[in-house]
């Protein structure tokens, strides 16, 4: 099949919310290249909120995480429906971190059976792709650039790198109401804290608490924690650690409401996770605690000049561990460094 004949496109992006946000410039360019095509996207359900409202995505299909029988049955049904759509082009926008993950992508594409298979040839693992771009496992450029390279390989012209993340007025109203209910006035200085994310990327709660304690001695401000519904208890633990100096919004905000809240912050302190990318694209002053992740790929300073990144140079980093017994890369970042970074950002404001 020729690219000029493409009428139905399926984008496969089984990453997190941050990965999807960073792919929007490439997705927008692909739609401009194939304006008459119907563009669908396959994602994990947890990332659904990052895709809703994108004008160039006509259909959203979701896979479930986990190995439960119900999840596997739902996933098989979704993949079978994709096969019946007879897609002209399938584009895999994720890194294949091992031969096993490459095998999974190959099986998925074989079942969908598109006319053209495109994506990343991570460390030469993409031999089954018709159109591919080279990529190292660690990454040698910003994650967004790999997606843009794929779009260009498919003939698209990437005219801008703006990330699509529209915050609706209703989200701003909800956040303002929530702040008011907790005694936060419009003129109050707000410091947001995101203690969650992948367990191997979480800075210790006691260190967050020490930062809150030290800054509260110097500055009159409100500290507010954010997190997903699953991280509500984590926010409550930090609230206890901080001896009541923290308001916990974990589990209370949608993705767009989270964006509205981050925009309200004078400074946002976060681990390497989706809210870090949101703070970066909104150009909110931020201290990013970068630990075991891939800094070259996901450095927020690529898109924001208001980000300070603190990272330890542990010999075992970067890694793909979900949990870690030593967390040496995390504990190497000190509360004093974070306080200094926050103070610097506030002084600039």
Structure commentary:
The protein is α/β, with parallel strands linked by helices. The chain has two domains: 3-153, Rossmann fold; 169-348, Glycogen Phosphorylase B (Rossmann fold). Helices cover 40% and strands 17% of the residues. It has helices at residues 17-33, 48-51, 69-84, 99-112, 143-153, 169-181, 205-218, 232-241, 255-264, 274-281, 295-298, 328-331, 335-348; strands at residues 8-12, 38-44, 59-63, 89-92, 116-122, 131-135, 190-194, 222-225, 246-248, 267-271, 286-290, 307-311. The strands form two sheets. Strands 3-2-1-4-5-6 form a six-stranded parallel beta sheet, sandwiched between helices. α1 (17-33) crosses α10, α6 crosses α9 (255-264) and α7 (205-218) packs across α8 (232-241). The termini are far apart. The mean pLDDT is 93.
Short key terms for the protein model shown above:
13 helices; 6-stranded parallel beta sheet; alpha/beta; 349 residues; Rossmann fold; 12 strands
Brief overview, please?
Helix content is 40%, strand content 17%.
Question: What is the name of the CATH superfamily of the largest domain?
Answer: Glycogen Phosphorylase B
Could you spell the SSE succession in H and E letters? EHEHEHEHEEHHEHEHEHEHEHEHH
End-to-end CA span:
55 Å
Q: CATH class of the largest domain, please? A: Alpha Beta
| CATH arch. level architecture of the largest domain | 3-Layer(aba) Sandwich
Task: Identify low-pLDDT runs.
Answer: none
Average pLDDT for all residues: 93
Helix content: 25-40%
Task: Give the class from helix and strand content and strand pairing.
Answer: alpha/beta
**How much is the radius of gyration in Å?**
21 Å
> What shape does the CA trace take?
globular
Number of H/I helices? 13
Number of β-strand runs: 12
């Amino acid at each position: 099949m020729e690219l000029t004949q493409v009428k139905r496109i399926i984008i496969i992006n089984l990453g997190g919310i941050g990965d999807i946000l960073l792919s929007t410039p490439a997705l927008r360019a692909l739609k401009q290249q194939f304006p008459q095509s119907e563009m669908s996207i396959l994602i994990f359900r947890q990332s659904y909120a990052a895709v809703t409202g994108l004008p160039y995505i006509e259909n959203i299909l979701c896979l479930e995480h986990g190995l439960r029988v119900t999840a596997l049955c739902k996933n098989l049904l979704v993949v079978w429906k994709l096969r019946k759509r007879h897609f002209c082009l399938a584009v895999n926008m994720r890194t294949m971190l091992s031969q096993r993950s490459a095998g999974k992508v190959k099986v998925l594409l074989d079942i969908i059976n598109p006319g053209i298979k495109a994506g990343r040839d991570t460390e030469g693992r993409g031999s089954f792709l018709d159109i591919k771009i080279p990529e190292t496992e660690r990454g040698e450029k910003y994650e967004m650039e790999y997606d843009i390279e794929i779009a260009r390989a498919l003939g698209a012209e990437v005219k801008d790198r703006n990330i699509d993340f529209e915050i609706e007025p209703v989200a701003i109203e909800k956040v303002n109401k929530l702040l008011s209910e907790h005694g936060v006035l419009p003129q109050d200085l707000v410091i947001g804290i995101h203690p969650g994310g992948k367990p191997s990327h979480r800075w210790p709660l006691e260190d967050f608490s020490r930062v809150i304690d030290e800054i509260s001695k110097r500055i009159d401000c409100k500290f507010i924690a954010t997190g997903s519904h699953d991280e509500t208890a984590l926010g409550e633990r930090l609230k206890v650690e901080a001896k009541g100096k923290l308001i916990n919004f974990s589990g209370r905000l949608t993705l767009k409401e989270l964006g509205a809240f981050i925009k309200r912050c004078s400074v946002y302190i976060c681990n390497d996770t989706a809210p870090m990318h949101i703070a970066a694209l909104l150009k909110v002053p931020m201290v990013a605690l970068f630990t075991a992740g891939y800094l070259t790929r996901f450095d927020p300073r690529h898109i924001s000049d208001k980000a300070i990144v603190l990272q330890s140079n542990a010999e075992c980093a970067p890694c793909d561990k979900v949990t870690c017994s030593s967390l040496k890369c995390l504990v190497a970042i000190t509360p004093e460094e974070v306080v200094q970074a926050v103070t610097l950002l506030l002084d600039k404001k």
